Amino acid sequence: MTLKALVLGCSLKKSPAPSSSELLGREVLAALADHDVDGELVRVVDHDVRFGVSTDEGDGDAWPRIRAKVLDAQILVIATPIWMGQPSSVAKMVLERLDAELSETDDQGRPSMYGKVGAVAVVGNEDGAHHVTAEVLQALNDVGFSIPAVSSTYWVGEAMGKVDYSDAGPKPDTTGAATAGLAANAAHLARLLSADNYPVS
Predict the structure, then answer these.
(1) Could you tell me if residue 26 is inside a domain?
(2) Are 111 and 101 within 8 A, CB to CB?
(3) In the record, which residues are listed under signal peptide (predicted)?
(4) pTM as predicted
(5) CATH number for 63
(6) Nearest C-alpha neighbor of 26 from the set 46, 12, 11, 48
């Protein structure tokens, strides 16, 4: 069974500007492909996503098109940089938009995100990767995503440093190993839930 994954890249920079969080998100997609998971990455800031907590804020809001991709995927990965020890403002906006799913259900009456797996990829030149991971995974779990073991991967450079993830060189035994573990476990759990979703309460 081929699964689908969606990575939401939460860089503050629009394409085609380089993005370390997008790079790590694409590495997650490559690792997921080893487990028969097809995927795509959407850089959120390239789209006119409005602030709000509904599924459609109207007036040309781009979120409904992105939401359709979330609904179509079995795995959602939030890829975010660290800013001031926090997830990016774009990542927080995405989580606020996902808050609307608390009121949405599937065709059997389950919360809309039940049966989907959530994960996170974090990069930055400062401390905060564990804090960012905790914030994002808790929010995803709140709206119904299931969180697998080893559900995050990250790279953090020297505090106040200038080296980007893309320039830091291969990291097969650190970030690379975490990315591989994320992919394996996310695909495993997504496949289980696709075959046997949570019961209708």
Answers:
(1) yes
(2) yes
(3) none
(4) 0.96
(5) 3.40.50.360
(6) 11
Q: What span, in angstroms and rounded, lies between the C-alpha atoms of 117 and 145?
A: 5
Distance of alpha carbon 59 from alpha carbon 61, whole angstroms: 6
- Structural domain including 146 reads 3-195
Q: What is the C-alpha to C-alpha distance for residues 140 and 78, in angstroms, rounded to an integer?
A: 9
The reported pLDDT for the residue numbered 116 is 98
Is 201 contained in some domain?
no
183 assigned to some structural domain:
yes
Residue with tokens 């990575």: 7
What is the pLDDT, as a whole number, of residue 170?
A: 83
Strand 117-124 with 75-83, pairing: parallel
Q: Check: CB of residue 33 under 8 Å from CB of residue 69.
A: no
Q: Which residues make Cβ contacts (< 8 Å) with residue 55, sequence separation at least 6?
A: 63, 64, 67, 97, 100, 101, 104
The Cα 156–Cα 174 span in angstroms is 11
What would the pLDDT profile of 12-67 be if each residue is shown by its tens digit? Answer: 999 999 999 999 999 999 999 999 999 999 999 999 999 999 999 999 999 999 99
Query: Does residue 200 belong to any structural domain of this protein?
Result: no
Domains: count for the chain: 1
Task: Please give the distance of CA 36 from its chain centroid, rounded to a whole number.
Answer: 18
The string of pLDDT tens digits covering residues 79-93 is: 999 999 999 999 999
Indicate if the pLDDT at residue 160 is higher than 80: no
